[in-house]
Protein 1
Amino acid sequence: MADFLHSPLERAHVAEGARLVEFAGYLMPVQYGGVIAESLAVRQASGMFDVSHMARLRFNGPDTLAFLERVTTNDVAKLGDGRGQYSLLPNATGGLVDDIIVYRDEASAFQMVVNASNHAKDMAWLQSHLGSGVEMADETDATAMIAVQGPKATTVLAGICEDAEALIAAPIFGTLTTKIAGVPCFAARSGYTGEDGFELVCPAERSVELWEALRAAGVAPCGLGARDALRVEAGLPLYGHELGEDLSPIAAGLGWVISKVKPFIGSEIINQVRAEGSDKKLQGVKLGVKRLPQPGMPVTVDGEPIGEVTSGVYSPILECGIGMAYINAEFSPPRSIDLQFRGRSESATLVNKRFLRPVK
């Protein structure tokens, strides 16, 4: 195990009997009791994920807002204290360095969560654009991050939270600093499942204490397998699959997190694609059977290729194989399509990529 990075929660996963796999250089739990049971726990009650591999960065200084406005696509200036937003790190050619979340603590203090697989790349990119009035700190190793998700997640957390009323009242992407089960936490009402819930950042040395308290409160431990199934059901993109350096965020349907008024890195190219339209669009594909669509699998109509699968899972809620695919823009859902499984054709349906609508 010496060749891997280690979550501060790893011993809790081992004690729970989780199956660990390599992910973004870390040993992470892919499942505990099973992907289906874990996915249903999140959809029906509450589940928790160790997402400590996600990188956590902090920015301070008088020029921080101006810096973030330049390197991200969303309107950071619209954020008030204790609020966050989903956003993107654009590159100069109309693609993405990463997709991120930005949180504002106060006027000159912000936090950012970036993808684990892009940690070093993002740090280098951001460092290359830092000015003298901004300081960046990497707090990943000093902290742990636990996502508690599901329709009962907030109620469970409120029962062990020092500031239960504030937690319950927090809006989507709202944040608060509080204690949960006595453990100091930065709590953000955000997630990657389409369900309500919070992402909790706490000191690494107290993360097992928090995990065990959540477990005692009835929250089910869940692995990366369930997290992937849940995010595809909710139509949420994953960097390296639906997003990338050479993929347009407009084609991915992310125009809603891209400012139409401010200049940012690559804004002219991205806005040109917005104005002219993309030749491809990210859509959902749904099979009538339990087979899994595979990334790279051709999508065809009447034997002619019209796109390619980017992600595929078995949906425990829909009880069939589903996925996302980039499809030629002239083809709109709903319509019949075929997926090519190693030369064998399987009937499917082109649908909206949000198989389950996220909770408001």
Note: The chain has three domains: 5-54+141-233, 56-138, 280-351.
Protein 2
Amino acid sequence: MSSFTNKSSEGTSGAIPDRKRIHVGWRRRLAGRLLSAIAVALRLWAACTRRSRSAPTKTVFVFEPFGMGDFLSLEPLIRHLGSNGIEVRVCARSEWKALLSNELVGQWLHPQLPWTSYDSRSKYQVARYVLGDFWKFISQLRAAGKGAVGLDPRGDVRSVILLYLDGCHPVATLECYLGTDLRIPRAAARIIECPDHLPRWQINLLFSKALSISAPNDCRPPSCPHLRNGGDWKDHRMAGLIPIAPWPGKWWNSRNWIELGKSLAADRWQPVGLCGPGQSQSARLQLGNEIEIRECLSVDQWSLNLQSCAFVITVDSGPMHLADALGVPVIALFGQGKLPLWAPSGPKSRVITHQDDPDFFLCHPIEKNAHWGRKFMSRICVAEVLSAVKGLGELEPSIRL
């Protein structure tokens, strides 16, 4: 296991600059500048057409259209806003509603955005941005966001523009697009710093500053107490294996998974593969034919299966963060994936990575870069994972090889 030191690139060959963030190429940088100019104009327009806000903030609209882990990282912030009497409205995938207690969110809107795809050919199709369904979604956003303070926890200028179009004012965003060196100008929105040494959930808590709210005294990582079933996972001999993530660049070698499963079974563990909807075939190809595969169709099913495990071995994925939030010990395998931004935060969780190798670099998690991610995942060996399981036994005597 290595320390969290990184290099960055878009996944090109040749000399790689030593940086802590993904380096954005000139095309995306040019597009970012053009979109930032639009955001600046929209901010000026909003300032001229709305009265300055004198009363304390009462409503916040949070825009996070991506995955389970992305949304879970917002739980501490949403919890903190609720404790300060602020109504929170959310634009996030409806599947993630179960991750929060019902009283924490006042209104929920499901996103319909082309750029949430991992397929670069699909996300940049101009036609998808001019169809009626996209503009119908914009009108729904405006009904939900008008008059609220807009929060974009990704540093995504596209989201900033949408929040202004929704009628949000002011809008707060990160200083740069999450994990990259693509910066948003200060004239475009209220800018929140994005320190490289903090996990994402702690960065999200910094948005309290934009709302003139003090940081919470109990800085607790994401948790889902309402999903805990009260069972004692220490009594189980089940070892959860999560081999699939939406971006295949995060996958581990199938030969390693099969060897790991055999080693765990030889030590009287019951390895069980866990995957999301429609992923059973991919999980079977990764884990082999000897391991039971359980397809989890909802957050509740994920929760029940994860809490049946003594520990979970997983690629960087949303269910990794859910297991961590449920207090289940996690061994997380990282090839790509910025650290500690995406590292699990629980005291029982461990990260295995080789990001301190001299030729490591970060790349965009898009289809054409998947081979780079798999290259760095392949450096993790089975012996390291088995050693990490033994290390968990120092915390929990019931976890022994």
Note: Residues 1-19 have pLDDT under 50 and may be disordered.
Protein 3
Amino acid sequence: MVIIIMGVEGTGKTTIGKMLAEKLGWKFYDADDYHPVANIEKMRNGIPLDDEERRPWLNEIRNLINSSLNGNEPSIIACSALKNSYREFLKQSKEQIIFVYLKGDKNTISKRLASRKGHFAGTQLLESQLRTLEEPEGVITADISKRPEVIADSIIEKLELL
């Protein structure tokens, strides 16, 4: 099984993903680590990526998913997966891939981003990501206003993993 923790920047994908992986004893991957250098530089400068620029990155994440599934290695992947087309591409109609949407209001996310240190994506990309986001249907949705431990435990409970 592969769980993809999705949402706009600043929703806690990495925090929740790592916490879930630790609680479950699964592997954790951050999709940000798979961006080409050119994409990172563009985002660092506050310039949103277009679909063409995202395509090689999405291919890398899809390869990671397939490798995890083929190796029978349960994994958690933190990945924005903002559009339905991206999620469909990553899911590949495989039932072993589950999306969890971390949802929050713009004000909460903005405050988080303003205090975040050491990440290439700053507050300037939030508006673009919110415009790009196509909220998923039929997935587990978690409210980011709760403490990370509560969010992780609720995800595990909803997926009946422990």
Note: Residues 35 and 75 are 19 Å apart (CA to CA).
Protein 4
Amino acid sequence: MPSLYVVATPIGNLEDITLRALRVLREVTLIAAEDTRKTSRLLARYEIKTPMTSYYEHNKLAKLDYIISCLDKVDIALVSEAGTPGINDPGYELIGAAIARKIPVITIPGPSTVTASLPVSGLPTDRFLYLGFLPNRSGARINFLKTLTDEKSTMIILEAPHRIPASLKDILSVLGDRHIAVCREITKLHEEIFRGTVSEAISHFQSPRGEFTLVIEGSNENQKPEMTEDIGQRLKKLREAGVPAKEAIAGLVKETGLSRKELYRKWLDSKNSENGIKNEELRIAAIKD
């Protein structure tokens, strides 16, 4: 019976292809490729002549029935733009449709951004959580990050270069100044792996270019930021200087990693305490008069 082969292909360096993947790409009748131009370069490098058909985000529904009908007669290889198909690409729908029709789905493992970035991050690898891309808009991104504040697993996130500065600032604001590995252009000519804290990464990546994978330290109770007397005094000075609560708290969120809720509670407690002292002074003065 014909099968659907899920074939991992290089994420950068074309030498990162397995012998089994090359054999399967030669033997199948058709290759369903997310990006035919990129796949053409891989096939040309290894002198593979197998025909291709495009299968990507904007034609996946129109092409699905055609590819499934072909699977009734011939073997097909599914390849993504780079890495392992089915992870953050339209391959998921095709794989699901094949399984529903009891068509054999065979994995040909190989390169993956996730498994390439995690081991070199220097962060714990015993438990990790892959999160794909963060939301585009800051508000949605912050709300999403808030769901991860107590996540103890190492987290892996993909991000576009033009959103790196904003995303790193939101990560600092919500998760605090954790350890992070920023993997840029991994396996490619200009590969860079930055290891440090989130605030250091913000300073380092001022004009980011290339493809990015962020590997972020999981929550550690011993590393959670704490409200200190110094932070309380700074809030008090900002209030006395006439700085609005929203502005003062926003600045300290980025600097300390404390939540807005915690800082605002301290702001109100300090304000109420100060008002209580003033009221008591007024009461004593009234008694003396």
Note: The longest helix spans residues 260-288.
